[in-house]
Amino acid sequence: MIRVTVWNEFQHEKNDEKIRAVYPDGIHGAIAEFLGKEEDFVVRTATLDDENCGITKELLDETDVLFWWGHVAHWRVPDEVAAMVRDAVLSGMGMIFLHSAHHSKPFKLLMGTTCNLSWREDGDYERLFVIDPGHPIVQGIENGYFRLEHEETYAEPFCIPEPDKLVLIGSYEGGEVFRSGCCYRRENGKIFYFQPGHEAFPTYYDKNVQTILKNAVRWAAPEAPRKVLDCPHVGRLPY
Ligand code: ZN
Predict the structure, then answer these.
(1) Is the entire prediction scored with pTM above 0.90?
(2) Quick check: 229 pLDDT over 90?
(3) What's the 153 CA to ligand 1 centre distance in angstroms?
(4) H-type alpha helices, 7-157
């Protein structure tokens, strides 16, 4: 079984009626709902207003793949919690950063760059093109692309390190393009950044989005027992 934790800042859905209408159980609730139907996943959720921001060492130890959605309250996640999440990834925990989590503390720690990008919220459509049809994350996406009727426009330049593997490019009604599906490896852990998921649009109910996120869980799950690599002094080899 793959143990999945869906962490959501869960602020818009509490404070804004229009967003609550789209995600009455929160974005984390919508994601946990479709992931929970997979027989090989055990899913739980955590949110910012939970004790210790919902993140403890025990939770991370018991999580194979962690989702992260945040937007207006990145600053409320203490630096120590962000460092704990980074360290869990380095030891082998898989991590999926969604949409505006590009500016979350754990993502920036793991990337080492500003992660800035350009954006525009006009409700444009987005087309997501599969770059690598053989990649496990895009299996089940027919015809090489899919379309979301409304998404927030994110545009290049996206200030991230060159992805180890770029699997999706987003293209918007206004002509902008964006690296919308990026894979990284950091020490033992795998990371997937996925651009769609603006809180005002029903993105996480889309079948193709759900397919990608389910695939991403299986791709990011640890392949070997988690382990922190250290820096031992070594003697000469005996022969
Ligand atoms: Zn957004």
Answers:
(1) yes
(2) no
(3) 8
(4) 12-15, 17-22, 26-35, 57-61, 79-91, 105-111
